[in-house]
Amino acid sequence: MSDKKNNPNNTEIYEEEIGREEKIYYASQWQLIWWKFRRHKLAIIGGIVLFLLYLSAIFCEFLSPYSPTTRFEGYQNASPTKIHIFEDGRLQRPFIYGFKKELNMKTFQWEFKEDKTKKFYVRFFGKGEPYKLWGIFKTDRHLFVVDEHPIFLFGADNMGRCLFSRSLYGARISLSIGLVGVFLSFSLGTIIGGISGYFGGTVDIIIQRIIEFLSSIPTIPLWMALSAALPKDWPVIRLYFAITVILSIIGWTGLARVVRGKLLALREEDFTMAARLAGASEWRIITKHLLPSFTSHLIVSITLSIPSMILGETALSFLGLGMQPPAVSWGVLLQDAQNIAAVALYPWKLLPSVFVILTVLAFNFLGDGLRDAADPYAR
């Protein structure tokens, strides 16, 4: 110890270590969680990706050059548009070339080629199609527009509609259905699982038999049967909430069993007995003492359930049993990719699946980081 104090360099290091230990000692629980979470680089990246995806869903009208129903006659299945910033080796304003259709004599399919005799400049924050932001504010400003010629960053579908715009609009349904569905399944799972594990006895037996029955039903056939039973003439909003409820019907069973097992182990602990002797109600014991004791597992369950809900909606819509046109979701957009021949000729129709993959990976990375951060004292 004397050597550390006599050596100036060692003294500075020693004082820095003491200061760090005191900072940790006096830090709140939320500060410790944040310090540990920000060291998880993949979780930070996942959180940023999700933030950008949800931000694009919120402002999809502004970010999209066109509405999801705008059609361009003569541009059916047009290939993605290339944005250029160089011409003859010189830096230029962003621009695109016009399209010309050529018949491929091998496939006998019309193909779109760049016509370098026609050049159109990209304008940022320009005026385009009028729209209502969030259905309230009427405006016509878009992030980028091109005058006198369509721009298809992700190509066009078989009706000449912009896939980039439709993907952004589809994010609003696909991303929000995960949040709403998880809220329902998480609420059911924690409440029913908590009642089953805390009270036990006949209540536990009945709840567990119900869970076993629901868990024994194949997921996809159940979703297909319930979705097929929905009236086809329902409006989009009603169909949206119906699909959300369907996805939540059996999504709570796994979480309920985990909560039950945790509460069975914790209900006889000393802090539970102390709360009971202090006169705390059963509901307070469950919500204020037992459930917070395994918050890390609940966080992981939430972050893993959201991508499961998104994949469920995508699968149902892909099979034609979920959201139906004119509603736009990632699953609806992928219906055009069911035909192998269409995918071989127009591979850009698979681009909406990139959003699904990014979302699922980002939620998994974020959940992993939150799980570690929720227990800041673990090594």
Characterization of this structure:
The chain is an alpha+beta fold and 379 residues long. The model has no long low-confidence stretch (mean pLDDT 81). The protein has 2 domains: 65-161, no CATH class; 165-373, MetI-like (MetI-like fold, Orthogonal Bundle). The two termini are 28 Å apart. It has a 4-stranded antiparallel beta sheet, with no helix packed on it. A two-stranded antiparallel ribbon has the order 4-5. β2 and β3 form a beta hairpin. The longest helix is centred in the middle third of the chain and has 37 residues, at 163-199. Helix content is 58%, strand content 13%.
Beta-strand content estimate = 5-15%
Low-confidence stretches: none
CATH H-level superfamily of the largest domain: MetI-like
CATH architecture of the largest domain: Orthogonal Bundle
Strand and helix map with partners:
Blueprint: H1 2-6, H2 8-26, H3 29-37, H4 41-58, H5 60-63, E1 84-87, E2 90-104, E3 109-124, E4 127-133, E5 137-141, E6 144-146, H6 163-199, H7 201-216, H8 219-228, H9 236-249, H10 253-266, H11 270-277, H12 282-290, H13 295-318, H14 330-333, H15 340-345, H16 352-373
Antiparallel strand pairs: 1-2, 2-3, 3-6, 4-5
Key traits:
single chain; 379 residues; alpha+beta; MetI-like fold; 2 domains; 4-stranded antiparallel β-sheet; two-stranded antiparallel sheet; 16 helices; 6 strands
Summed up, what is this model?
The protein has 379 residues and is α+β, with helices and mostly antiparallel strands.
